[in-house]
Amino acid sequence: MKTVMVTGGAGFFGGILKRAILESGDRCISVDIVPDPDEHPNLDKRQIDIRDREALDQAFANAPIDGVVHCAAKLAHGSEDPKDLWTSNVDGTRNVMDAMRKHGVRQHVFTSSNCLWGEAMGRPVLEDDAPNPVELYGRSKLEGERIIREYTDINCVLLRCPTILDFGRLGLLSILFEFIDEGRRVWAVGGGRNRYQFIYAGDLANACMLALDYPSSDIFNIGSDDVKSIAEVYEYVIRNSKSKAKVATLPRGPAIAAMKLAYRLKISPLGPYHYKMIAEDFLFDTSRIKERLGWRPTLTNEEMLWRAYRYYSENRREIEARQDVSAHRKAAKMGVIRLLKWVS
Q: Is residue 286 part of a domain?
């Protein structure tokens, strides 16, 4: 029986990974700043902030740990204080690495992000392409990667992830789901002709577990195959839900200009990454992880989004009442987007 620590274990993806570890017969230590509702004989829950070095050290000292998957992160739309986001994502990452070194833990997996880029490249992004983040969350993830690479005595696998989807994924997607659920027009910038890659949470969990046995440090892009246009993905969900919603077009230039203004006025949850990438293609090249880890995706974008929408539609009332959960497990505030809803 292995013992694996998952930071962010009460969050959307951390919870899925934690349950996969437990279902495999291994032991899991869940570390999160919010309460973890799960119960299992092999689950050790620690409600702590990873910026608290003493509390983190105690979590490591409780039992020998075979590996750590570091998923904990503050999101831009889930944190009103930029300093809070930076210290959690950057200082917290260093604390995790220091605790691993102190306690002799040699296997580490870090869930990084496609937010390391804020411009389309006209082709799938490779692991060797230089990152260029355009907002604080992406910069914090890049700094986290830089810190992790300092620890050359630890096998560190960096998994660069696009948007993670499955039952329970909410956050900014809840805005889209609300439009579909109410049969409104679903607006796609530039007609939704661009392709934007997702990753199924179950496939990412599988990659994390494979990476815990990887004998060296590496960087892997991860994502779905057979990526269709945004409009096609939306239409798949609308068709399967039997919603009266229709995909409608927002002109690209005026829409992006409006999003930039709304962000500067602090009345929109959409930041620079979103308004730069919302009408662009973004795909990761996933050849390396397939070759070196033997990993393969199992679900397409449209299948993932349909699963996530079904969860929202079936649990909407309970979701709207949620408090004290991670940003991905609650609905994001619409802000000025609610005006668009009223005319949809």
A: no
Quote the pLDDT of residue 3: 98
pLDDT, tens digit, for every residue of 25-36? 999 999 999 999
Same structural domain, 122 and 86: yes
- Helical H runs in the chain? 12-23, 53-61, 82-86, 92-102, 136-149, 173-181, 201-211, 230-241, 252-264, 272-277, 287-293, 301-320, 337-342
| Long-range CB contacts for residues 242-247, cutoff 8 Å, separation at least 24 | 243/180, 243/181, 243/183, 244/183, 245/179, 245/180, 245/182, 245/183, 245/184, 245/185, 245/186, 246/185, 246/186, 247/185, 247/186, 247/188, 247/192
Is 295 inside a domain boundary?
no
Quick: pLDDT tens for 318-341. Answer: 998 888 888 888 898 899 898 888
User: With 90 as the cut, is the pLDDT of residue 21 above it?
Assistant: yes
User: Do both 244 and 206 map to the same domain?
Assistant: no
Express as a percent the part of the chain with pLDDT over 70: 99
Burial of 23 (0-12, 13-18, 19+ CB in 10 A): exposed
Domain range for 259 is: 173-195+227-280+300-342
User: How remote is the C-alpha of 123 from its chain's centroid?
Assistant: 22
Q: How far is CA 55 from CA 31, 87, 233, 324, 325, in A?
A: 10, 16, 44, 20, 21
Residue of 185, 301, 181 lying closest to 241 (CA atoms): 181
Distances (CA, A) of 316 to 177, 181, 310: 10, 9, 10
Query: Mean of the per-residue pLDDT values for the chain?
Result: 95
Query: Taking a C-beta distance cutoff of 8 angstroms, is the pair 171, 327 a contact?
Result: yes
Q: What are the tokens at 186?
A: 């679903």
Tell me the pLDDT tens digit for each residue of 163-172.
999 999 999 9
